[in-house]
Amino acid sequence: MSRVFPQTPCPSHPSSHSVSKPESFTIWMKSLVFNTRGCTVYNSKGEIIYRVDNYDNKCGQEVYLMDIRGKVLFSLLQKKLRLFGCWDGYKWDASSSRKQLWFRVRKHRSICVSLCDDMCTYKIVRNDGKLGFNIVDADQEGALVAEIKQKQTTTGINFGNDVFTLTVQPHVDQSLIMAIVMAYGLITNQI
């Protein structure tokens, strides 16, 4: 029987730390909570490190990215009265349970992510004819930040339309990338 998570060993960091080499994660577009929408994220050892739950309904107005213990890392809030779609990403402070606006995702002709603290801009670039996309740094001439693609077995067989591999480049906040992936899933009605 094939496994859903990556087989290559790679150190895991379930917090918002960045690491010095690319890391691979498996995203399964299923929630662990009965009767909710969301997804579950596994590291290369098969351990759950993130979960996304949408307690309202598909494409609800507020969605939470949590670690395995249920601690909220980011929440996404859909802005009302936006013609093309806009989501605000809030980073949660664990000590005070307060949230701070961290990024904004807008969809017009393309999907752009604006970070609020350093005015950095990421773009989401769809892969032609395939499930998946790349997150690139628009300020660094399109440098690859992360890639998400349909998960395959070692023999090249796809796991299905709801299982993906996420590869995050070194020195990038992994929880931020997961929050951006979550926003993309909301914009495209996958979560």
Structure description:
The chain has 191 residues and is mostly beta strands. The longest helix is centred in the last third of the chain and has 14 residues. It is built from one helix and twelve strands; from the N terminus they run ββββββββββββα. The two termini are 27 Å apart.
Considering the chains and any ligands shown, give keywords for the structure:
191 residues; mainly beta; twelve-stranded antiparallel β-barrel; 1 helix
Low-confidence stretches: 5-15
**Bulk shape:** globular
| Radius of gyration from the alpha-carbon trace, in angstroms | 16 Å
Mind summarizing the main beta sheet? 12 strands, antiparallel, barrel
Mean pLDDT: 82
What percent of the residues sit in helical stretches (DSSP H or I)? under 10%
Helix-strand pattern, N to C? EEEEEEEEEEEEH
Beta strand %:
35-45%
Question: Structural class per helix/strand content?
Answer: mainly beta
Cα distance, first to last residue?
27 Å
Strand order, biggest sheet?
1-2-3-4-5-6-7-8-9-10-11-12
In total, the number of strands is 12
| Total helical elements | 1
What's the layout of helices and strands?
Elements: E1 23-28, E2 37-42, E3 48-54, E4 62-67, E5 72-78, E6 86-93, E7 98-107, E8 111-115, E9 121-126, E10 132-137, E11 143-150, E12 163-168, H1 174-187
Antiparallel strand pairs: 1-2, 1-12, 2-3, 3-4, 4-5, 5-6, 6-7, 7-8, 8-9, 9-10, 10-11, 11-12
Summarize the entry for a quick read:
With about 190 residues, the chain is mainly beta. About 5% of the residues lie in helices and about 40% in strands.
